[in-house]
Specification:
Distance between the termini: 36 Å
Helix content: 25-40%
Strand content: 15-25%
Radius of gyration: 20 Å
Bound molecules: (3R)-3-hydroxy-3-methyl-5-(phosphonooxy)pentanoic acid
Length: about 375
Amino acid sequence: MTENDFVPKGSTSLPMDGKVRYKAPSNIALVKYWGKKENQIPANPSISFTLDACATTTALSYKRSEKLLDSFSLELFFEGKLKEDFKPKIITFFERIEKYVPFLKEYHWKIETSNSFPHSSGIASSASGMAALALCLLSVEKSGNPEMSEDYFNQKASFLARLGSGSACRSIEGDLIQWGHTPGIPGSTNLFGVTYPFEVHQNFKNYHDTILLVHKGQKTVSSTVGHELMYGHLYAEKRFEQAHQNLEKLKKIFGSGDLDAFIEIVESEALTLHAMMMTSLPYFILMKPNTLEIINRIWSFRLATKTPICFTLDAGANVHVLYPESHKAKCIQFIQDELVAYCENGHYICDRIGKGAQRLVVDQQ
Ligand code: PMV
């Protein structure tokens, strides 16, 4: 597949107006994407668990304009309130995808969006938000082209979402999604996320992710800036190589169900991501003292009880605590007894691996 495969061919009869609604989940990377090339092409491949509870629901209403507009006509509501300050991000997204969604200037768009998690939780909503919006827009194209296959629909939705926010391309399907070309994974591509093509051991089904909200404030450095700092980074090339190697190692681990080996890769990836931040120029730290307290508690508990519990981090201070279904009760007890005290106002979110985005009936909550 190339980018050109996502440019609609021929003329289709698009609807005059309508409304569509999608719910798209967040995702948590096991092998991290950090560093990108032009057009949101990742500098290294990544893989993630699709989540379930943390999600964005977006309703898109559209009405055809009398004539082709000079600029995008849109209004955006977040949790019921008009949000002018979210508009520039959406306009940038529309500019990037216009070649692939050529009817954007033919409609007035009303976007109504909300998250299942609190806005100021420090959980990034860009992955779920861009995925939900990409799905809504693509379903307008599909209504003029009902023959579009499900595979193509998912690929193009992921492709469009990627142009909004890289990791959003892993939020269309579940439950294990790979993005970025790597020789060992057939069908892997930089253009969109694909469902992991190999057998995955039962140990990794229904995996849990309890998200400990350590710091709910704004991050000091955005992901966009963080990615840019990988240009000319002293350790960048080695890091990109390591991501390919870790994906290769995970292949065997996913097949055999080896939880110790899984933990080693996942925690090393999280710490490497933050090591890249600490060794960028300018350098920065997104972890907080409580992030480290939690990590140390997890290590002590794992050593003492031999429970296969581990952590990962995204670009922030919050900690994702990962554990298999078979150890759920013990891990939740440990989290409540020992870790919740390190969360801001004791807040955490119990999530688990999920099946991907869903189309909702228009007025469904
Ligand atoms: O999708 P972005 O540009 O917000 O970057 C996300 C990067 C990480 O969350 C840190 C890693 C990843 O692979 O999701």
